[in-house]
Amino acid sequence: MPESSEADVVAYVEEHGERLPELVFTAVGAYTGVAIGQDAVKAGDLPGVLIAAA
Questions:
Q1: For residue 11, what pLDDT is reported?
Q2: pLDDT tens per residue, range 12-41
Q3: Of 36, 37, 39, 52, which alpha carbon lies 20 to 30 A from 26's?
Q4: Are 37 and 21 in contact (CB under 8 A)?
């Protein structure tokens, strides 16, 4: 929300704060094509991945 004032951001978070984690996971999943369940993240049950550059 780069064009928004601090008051606008605070009001948005107060109104939608509970849904923000769900919205972020949905947006990231749609952008990357990777679906990671929010419950798995909360439980710390994620696979480890190592990406090495040659």
A1: 93
A2: 889 988 888 888 888 888 998 877 777 877
A3: 52
A4: no
Q: What is the residue-wise DSSP string for 21-47?
A: HHHHHHHHHHHHS----HHHHHHT---
The structure's pTM equals 0.49
CA-based R_g, the chain, Å: 15
Instruction: Fill in the amino acid letter for 33.
Output: G
Tokens for 3? Answer: 């064009």
Instruction: Find tokens 């090495």 and name the residue.
Output: 52
Contact 1/9 with Cβ under 8 angstroms?
yes
